[in-house]
From TrEMBL:
Residues 103-122, 127-151 are annotated as: Disordered. The keyword Zinc does not apply. SUPFAM superfamilies: Putative DNA-binding domain. Keywords: DNA-binding. One of its GO terms (molecular function) is DNA-binding transcription factor activity. It comes from Nitratireductor mangrovi. This is MerR family transcriptional regulator. Residues 10-78 form the HTH merR-type domain. SMART domains: HTH_MERR. It comes from the Bacteria. InterPro entries: DNA-bd_dom_put_sf (IPR009061), MerR-type_HTH_dom (IPR000551), MerR_fam (IPR047057).
Length: 176
């Protein structure tokens, strides 16, 4: 029996529908404070239809458009939740209208920001070399060229590994 489009979804249903592991959805809740599923007794999550559309929009920007988590956070700050929800729902006209309204509105002075190269879990002591990611020859840490960029599959694998490591860190922090 299929659920109504307006019905709430469990984390397993959302994960299956979007082809994402459940731990990725939990991780995204920590990085995107706009994802707030309703929680019942025992911590069971129930996602509203607009939560699912927002997650679809986030997934699209991360996996298909190549944005970083910080980049998607910036999109949310600049364009609001409605923008990514519209993208997730497939309503590109609404997303375009939101973008046009934002461009037409007067822009406040930007707040001071940190370094865009910061890592998710804090300031890096040293940036990994391009060789670390298999990009470039030994001793070549110069700028990327078209041939040595990460493929979408490799980027997805690295992103998945990062999610797993962050989930492990979260679990270790709970034990301490």
């Amino acid at each position: 029996m299929d659920k109504s489009p307006d019905a709430f979804r469990t984390i397993s249903e959302v994960a299956e529908d979007l082809d994402l592991p459940q731990h990725v959805l939990r991780f995204w809740e920590t990085r995107f404070n706009h994802i707030k599923p309703m929680k019942r007794g025992g911590g069971r999550r129930y996602y509203r239809p607009q939560d699912v559309d927002l997650i679809k929009g986030i997934k699209h920007m991360l996996y298909e458009q190549g944005y970083t988590i910080k980049g998607v956070q910036k999109l949310l700050r600049e364009n609001g939740v409605g923008f990514l929800t519209a993208i997730g729902a497939g309503d590109l006209a609404a997303a375009e209208a939101i973008t046009m309204r934002k461009q037409a509105a007067p822009q406040p002075a930007p707040a001071p920001r940190g370094n865009d190269d910061e890592m998710l879990v804090g300031e890096p002591k040293a940036k990994p070399s391009r060789r670390f990611f298999g990009l470039g020859r030994q001793g070549d840490d110069g700028p990327a060229t078209g041939d040595d960029k990460l493929s979408r599959d490799n980027r997805a694998l690295l992103q998945e590994a990062l999610f797993d490591l962050l989930e492990c860190k979260r679990l270790l922090d709970q034990v301490r």
